[in-house]
Amino acid sequence: TFIIIMAARSGIGYDVHRLVEGRPLILGGVNIPWQKGLDGHSDADVLSHAIADAILGAVGAPDIGYFFPPSDNSIKGISSMSILQKTAQEVADRGGEIINVDSSLIAEEPKILAHADEMKKNISQALGLDVVKIGIKATTNERMGFVGKGEGMAAMAIASVEI
After folding, report:
1. DSSP 3-state assignment of 111?
2. Which of 1, 8, 29, 147 is deepest in the core (most CB within 10 A)?
3. How many CB atoms lie within 10 A of CB 94?
């Protein structure tokens, strides 16, 4: 008889992108109506990127830039739901299981909590994780700094993984 002892590990993630004209605003895999979108090589989903980095950090893997480098033109415009799927696969390949994720989006506008349930559903499907194990919160930067001036958005996340 073998006994396998799993250990809970946690990781943190942070991401930031500039807001620009002419791009859709994608957060948590949801296209949110807004006059600006986030600039990036992928769909620039700052929330999903922070979550992916938190999960990867929990298993000691490199960040999403390693797996999805901005220099790779074959993945230009890639959906961040695909990034989350690859992240979940990295955890599984290492013998781990994602326990939960919690995240905070930092932006002055638009208000996003009306979209939180759909975001949780998308993230849940991409990660293969029960929707009740995903936290999404939003806050402002109190009009300070580049986020407060509406020049960009940031997100932070933490993830727990059993491995």
Report:
1. coil
2. 29
3. 13
- Predicted TM-score (pTM) of the model is 0.96
Q: Report pLDDT digits (tens) over 101-126.
A: 999 999 999 999 899 999 999 999 99
User: Is residue 95 packed enough to be buried (19+ CB in 10 Å), middle (13-18) or exposed (0-12)?
Assistant: exposed
- Residue from 54, 65, 140 nearest 102 by CA: 54
Instruction: Please name the residue that has the structure tokens 């901005």.
Output: 70
Q: pLDDT tens digit string along 75-88?
A: 999 999 999 999 99
Q: What is the DSSP string of 17-64?
A: EEEETTS-EEETTEEE--S-EE-SSS---HHHHHHHHHHHHHTT---H
**Residues 120, 130 contacting (CB under 8 angstroms):** no
